[in-house]
Description:
Layout: E1 3-7, H1 10-13, H2 34-39, H3 44-47, H4 57-65, E2 68-71, H5 79-89, E3 98-103, E4 108-113, E5 116-122, H6 138-141, H7 152-170, H8 173-195, E6 200-205, H9 211-219, H10 249-252, H11 268-282
Parallel strand pairs: 1-2, 1-3, 3-6
Antiparallel strand pairs: 4-5
Helix pairs in contact: 4-11, 5-8, 8-9
Amino acid sequence: xxxxxxxxxxxxxxxxxxxxxxxxxxxxxxxxxxxxxxxxxxxxxxxxxxxxxxxxxxxxxxxxxxxxxxxxxxxxxxxxxxxxxxxxxxxxxxxxxxxxxxxxxxxxxxxxxxxxxxxxxxxxxxxxxxxxxxxxxxxxxxxxxxxxxxxxxxxxxxxxxxxxxxxxxxxxxxxxxxxxxxxxxxxxxxxxxxxxxxxxxxxxxxxxxxxxxxxxxxxxxxxxxxxxxxxxxxxxxxxxxxxxxxxxxxxxxxxxxxxxxxxxxxxxxxxxxxxxxxxxxxxxxx
Length: 286
């Protein structure tokens, strides 16, 4: 049997869908409210399981296609982490398989250490900007356990370092342009090594605006001396040839459908509709 391999962030993982949420109950078996959960000191990661949902669009689509599925997506992933998902999994991809990469928000920032991955910042922070907004929260935001040897003072020190370094290095105009540009290079290279397997490769995005457009917008905020047209680096038109579907995300982010219960992520209905849409758009003969 051929296999569908999918990569991405929480939207591809199926975050907050019923089978990856562990309902917390009181002694009478009744679900705890959010306030009761906070009061009880229940960990965020005890509620949201760190695995792919069987109700998410990859499994629904694979069932329609008669394929098995490997869903490598995980919540909070940035471009860097999604590329790493692909690099780790590439050895399992066969020529007759299908690969779908659903890229996350270009503005998402991730820092990496051996013991943890932090996604504390996004350079776009707005209440009406959907899932592009990622603010401070460190590991707790994404359900990652702290080290057994960690202390509150150590975590505070690390968090302070993250805030200072990201604001001074990654979140200023120069850092944003640099990060966007290099993320696009990484995306193009990921496409190349995935296609080298012989598998069919499809690229989707969770956001409607293309990376090229976002890069050009970031350029507007550079100082005049840095806006001169690519005297030192090639314009992406010379090397960015990857085709990314920025239209289909309207289906999985359809605001007319209620989101997952107690969360803002796509619901079971969103995922089902999206699987049907992708099947019709890319697999109409299967």
